[in-house]
Amino acid sequence: MPVAARVKPADFFTPEEWAPLAARSRSRGLWLVAHAWLVIVAAGALFVAFPNPLTLVVAVMLIGARQLGLAILMHDAAHGCLHPDLKVNDWVGQWLCGAPTNGELLRYRDYHLGHHKFAQQAEDPDLGLSAPFPITRQSLWRKAVRDLTGQTFYKQRIKPSLDAFRDGAKKGVPFRKTARGVYRFWRPFLIVNGIIILATSLIGLWWAWPVLWLLPMATWYPLITRLRNIAEHACVAKDEPDPLRHARTTRAGWLARAVLAPYYVNYHCEHHMFMHVPCWNLPATNRLLAAKGVTERMLTAPSYVAVLGMASSKAA
Length: 316
Fold this sequence. Notes:
- It comes from Caulobacter ginsengisoli.
- The chain is built from 15 helices and two strands.
- With 316 residues, the protein is mainly alpha-helical.
- The protein starts with 14 loop residues before the first helix and ends in a 5-residue tail after the last helix.
């Protein structure tokens, strides 16, 4: 079974250059998690203080982007990069990053490491996300509409549980047994979101959870997750032999980082080259590689708009 080609840090960096890039921090990862939650609270407070359609749209976009940010930080935890103490790393990655949006760290870790092992190979579990591209512009717009209207959220989050009950009934599985399995799947999400509902209700904002948490999760979060996936691997050659071109790095300004690509997720080529570098060290990794002339060989894009144009370039 072929695996993706690898690079060795020693091929690009001296030991003195590599050591700080790969170093874990006891504070930086925890600060990013805290930052995500602070932005979520601040965006929600903006709408509470000035309730109008504009502030609602801003809050939904900022909160949805930080929900993606929590998923990105769970991704760092899956690589053991969020904290040098693995117990702290896994607890924070599971309960403060994954569970709020129904992510599950250990399940994701097994799945995601397979993606790194077989990147752009037939065995890559994420290959289906990039294989259809390029698509038509009309197809991309239809996908965006499904994301923003909650259809993708229903298909990915709600429908599998409903299907479990339907399939269980067809196979004669007792309802109680199926319900236990579905509950185990949703349990972390229910615990964390129950705490959020209780906390907001105690301060008289009982409506905050559906409006300022569930709504972003069902609309903006699926859309930018799709756009991020497109930017990372769409139109990348299957069975690509060059490890510097298994994934794409996309330049992102402050606005893109705020609403689309938080916590250095746009440095995806560097991440695939050196998957144990914490996300906050990816910009420094990029600068060092650029100084050595390596970025000229890497797969890059000038903006997310440019990537989407390429990914939707198929004739109608």
